[in-house]
Amino acid sequence: MAITATVFEGTSFHFARAPLARLGAESRARFQAATPFAHAVFDDFLGEALSLRLARAFPRPDHPGWMRRDYHEQSARLGQLQRTGFEGVEPLLRQLLAELSGMAFLDFLSSLTGLTGLIADPHFRGAGPSATLRGGHLALHADFNRDRTRHLARALTVLYYLPLDWDSSWGGELELWDSDRTRCAVSIAPTRDRLVVMAHGDTFWHGHPSPLACPDDRFRASVAAYFYRAAPTAEDDEAHGAIWATPEGT
Fold it and tell me: Which helix (H) or strand (E) holds 20?
């Protein structure tokens, strides 16, 4: 059953704030109790009709804006569309990116995690759409912990999956491992319209380390978004409200 968290009007949609906030609050205990680290999985997040349109709008592997990665840590992976400001990306998918940075989604994340003061990254540094081709993989890793440009501390990772279809025999599951990397504790299939929210930590190991076995005409499609909190320093001034100038003599 689809979550009624969006309003879909022709070719436009937006996240509905109140239903999302309720969903987050109802799921907080599940998020906080999850192992091997705090996370939550939401199926049918946007509903069949909208998710299918988004999947069809997802850039194909021959999109000229992709940058391909073929390293030991990750192979046959396409990303970095933000380098050109998502030029050539379909408007519907661009709207999804905007909604992931918007007020309704930030309120949802706060309701879900209990974290306040979350800050989105509209530049999608290291995030945004990503496609993994046949044979591709992403080694186990813990995510970077700082936005050095904005001096922010990483707090959450969000992944939203958008393949047109997916067969379990193809692999590509997101694996969450325990802190000493001895055991895969959770395996999450990258099925369409599945949203994953994960806490950040230097021992929060995850990835899809096994080579993808999908057909040549299929790929693992996802959109990632990272969220931050301010990292106060000893030099920060104490918080205060507005300081009003008053007329002389009053």
Answer: helix 17-33
Distance, CA of 105 to CA of 15 (rounded, Å): 7
Nearest alpha-carbon partner for 160 in 22, 42, 28: 42
Q: What is the pLDDT of residue 75?
A: 84
Could you tell me the two tokens for 136? 């591709």
Asked whether the beta carbons of 138 and 207 are under 8 A apart, the reply is yes
Domains assigned to the chain: 6-230 (2.60.120.620)
- DSSP letter string, 70-135: -SSSEEEEEE-GGGGTTTT--HHHHHHHHHHTSHHHHHHHHHHH---S-EE-TT-TT-EEEEEEEE
For 128, residues 6+ apart whose C-beta sits below 8 A from its C-beta are: 79, 80, 81, 82, 86, 97, 223, 224, 225
What span, in angstroms and rounded, lies between the C-alpha atoms of 41 and 160?
Answer: 10
Helix (H) or strand (E) holding 57: helix 48-57
CA–CA distance, 89 with 80 (Å, rounded to integer): 12
User: 2 — phi, psi (to 5°)?
Assistant: -70, 145
How far apart are alpha carbons 64 and 51 in whole angstroms?
Answer: 24
- A 10 A CB-CB count for 172 gives 27
Do 10 and 176 touch, CB atoms closer than 8 A?
A: no
Whether 249 shows a pLDDT value over 90: the answer reads no
- Give pTM, 2 decimals: 0.90
The 8-class DSSP code of residue 82 comes to G
Provide the terminal-to-terminal Cα distance of the chain, rounded to the nearest Å: 63
Length of the chain: 250
* pLDDT band at residue 2 using 50, 70 and 90 as cut-offs: very low
Grouping H, G, I as helix, E, B as strand and the rest as coil, residue 217 is coil
